[in-house]
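ingest -> validate -> predict -> emit
validate: passed (alphabet ok, no gaps, 126 aa)
predict: started
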Amino acid sequence: MALPTSKVKFDTNLISHIPILTGQDNYDVWRLQIQTTLSGYSVWEFVDSTLTYAAQADAADWLKWKLLDKRVLGLMASTINDSLLTHVNYEWTDPVVCPLISKALWDILRGLFGTVGIPGQFNLFY
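emit:
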C-alpha cells in the first residue's frame, strides 16, 4: 500500500467535533469518530498497522512514514483528556521493532477502555 501524501492536514474544525476521551464512559463514541476521521484522511492504516515502516522502499519513504505516523498520533493525543497524556509516547525506540507510535497509543486506550465490565475495571487499576 502506498503512503498518502505527507501534506495531509487535518481540519481543526472537524477535529473539534470529536469528543475528548475521558474514559470508558465515552470511549466507544470517541473510537468510532477517530476511526472515521482517520479513514477519511486515508491514514487509518497507520493505526490498524496495514501500512508499516518496514514496507517502505527507501529512506525518503521512511521519513514520510514517520511524519505521518506522528501526525496521526498528534490528532489522537489532541482528543484525549490531559490525565491520559501519560500514555502518549512521541518517540520510537526502534521503528522496525516498535513500528507505530499511533498504533501503540490506540492499543493502550483500547486496553484501558475497550474492555467492559470487571475485566475493564481491572485494566484501569492495574
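The chain has a mean pLDDT of 82.
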